[in-house]
Design a protein that fits this description.
The protein is an alpha/beta fold. The protein is built from twelve helices and 13 strands. The strands form three sheets. A seven-stranded mixed β-sheet has the order 1-7-6-5-4-2-3, sandwiched between helices. The chain has a four-stranded antiparallel β-sheet with strand order 10-11-13-12, covered by helices on one side. It has a two-stranded antiparallel ribbon with strand order 8-9. Helix 2 runs antiparallel to helix 10 and helix 11 crosses helix 12. Bound molecules: pyridoxal-5'-phosphate.
């Protein structure tokens, strides 16, 4: 602990030096965690809005009604994007913002648990594909639910027949990813939601990554199996703006199909000295800046702006896929629908290849099933495709033994 304060310049210089030791979040050598566009206009917009709301608190919508309206408008924007049916006369919200995908998933699982308990289910169980994000297992852990994993087929899509056989009277929600983190694969949403509808239980579509990609792929005419609220049986959906919505961390949207279900998400308490306390998420005080930034970005880009970005991203993905497929000995896992690619090989130790790529300054992610590499492409990677493919081809042809680096997501 320092007793004496330090000069601003010195503190900032210290920070800059330390930041420089980590991967550059604006650059094109990181393949996940951040989603750089390479567009200074968008970064400047985020910066300007953030500054305006730097100290704002989104806890109390009654004290800051206009700030709260930004959240309502953002939630409605996203709801429309994913075709959540709107009841024109309803004054209720289709959902809320949260701090990120994990919190959206936690709150959805809680709501599904509460609905099940109200129906008399004794031990509410989440049924999720083995490729689903760990946030579902976390929800089961936090909320005292059981967690059952659905096996996947050869293409890493949830196996619907297996899902059917795993449903019990305790199953309260079926999860489908649109699309998955490990392999970028779209689960069979229509079939899984159909199962859920048949059993009158919830179906959560995890569009944390896909929510700001799939609608624009569809608008661009790419063939996409149905996955959003137009699918019968979908009850909840998580859509992260802080991923392919290109805003700084701290904002996701959780939507419910039914106007009444948002209220199950809200925790109400008035047995203390300072009046009714009501919050829709885990946090009490929470930053308003991510919400305001997401509102501003969606207003500025509009669906046209996002579609243009996705069109450009598609070209990057297509070039990267073609280049990978052309390298002898490695292949793409399954048939990814968007910008998340997993690589596998039956002849090459891809973790050893990853070590060579690390040494060349690429931060490729590792997968364990199947053993391989993983990349989440962002718009900025348009400038890195050729260099990455050249290094990858060389690393595949010339690599030593794997250094056994631990495979970790976080
Ligand atoms: C498919 C999917 N769902 C949920 C999440 C969780 O999102 P967050 O890290 O914002 O909590 C992620 C994160 O990468 C994801 O890829």
């Amino acid at each position: 602990m320092n007793e004496q304060g330090r000069a601003v310049d010195e503190v900032l210089a210290d920070l800059d030096e330390r930041r420089a030791q980590d991967p550059d979040v604006h650059g094109s050598r990181l393949f996940g965690l951040v989603y750089p566009t390479g567009r200074t206009d968008l970064e400047e917009l985020a910066d300007s809005v953030y500054k305006r709301y730097l100290f704002a608190n989104a806890l109390n919508p009654l004290k800051f009604p206009e700030q709260a309206r930004l959240e309502t408008e953002l939630v409605q924007w996203v709801a429309e994007l994913v075709h959540r049916p709107m009841n024109a006369t309803s004054k209720r919200s289709p959902g809320s913002t949260t701090s990120g995908g994990t919190e959206s998933i936690l709150m959805s699982m809680l709501v599904n648990r509460e609905r099940a308990l109200a129906r008399g289910v004794e031990r509410p169980t989440i049924l999720a594909p083995q490729t689903a994000h760990p946030a579902y297992a976390k929800a089961a852990h936090y909320f005292d639910m059981d967690y059952v994993r659905i096996p996947v087929d050869d293409g890493y899509r949830a196996d619907v027949n297996a899902a059917r056989s795993l449903i019990t009277e305790n199953t309260c929600v079926i999860v489908a990813s649109a699309f998955t983190y490990p392999h970028g694969i779209l689960d069979p949403v229509t079939e899984l939601a159909g199962l859920a509808g048949e059993k009158r239980i919830g179906c959560h579509v995890d569009a944390c990554i896909g929510g700001f990609v799939l609608p624009f792929l569809e608008q661009l005419g790419r063939p996409i199996a149905p996955w959003d609220f137009r699918v019968e049986g979908v009850t909840e959906m998580s859509v992260d703006v802080h991923k392919y919505g290109y805003v700084p961390k701290g904002v996701s949207v959780l939507l419910h199909a039914d106007d009444d279900w948002f209220f199950d998400q809200v925790f109400f308490y008035d047995e203390w000295a300072s009046g009714l306390y009501a919050t829709p998420g885990v946090a009490g005080a929470r930053p308003a800046a991510p919400v305001a930034t997401a509102w501003a970005m969606t207003q500025h880009l509009g669906t046209d702006g996002y579609r243009e970005i996705v069109a450009d991203l598609c070209q990057t993905v297509d070039r990267m896929r073609a280049g990978i497929e052309a390298i002898d000995g490695i292949e793409i896992v399954g048939d990814p629908i968007g910008p998340v690619l997993a690589l596998r090989s039956s002849t090459v130790d891809l973790h050893a290849v990853g070590d060579v790529m690390d040494d060349r300054g690429w931060n490729l992610n590792r997968n364990t099933d199947p053993t391989g590499l993983h990349m989440m492409l962002s718009p900025i990677h348009r400038e890195a495709v050729d260099a990455l493919l050249a290094d990858l081809a060389e690393a595949v042809a010339h690599h030593g033994d794997s250094r056994g680096k631990e495979v970790r997501y976080s």
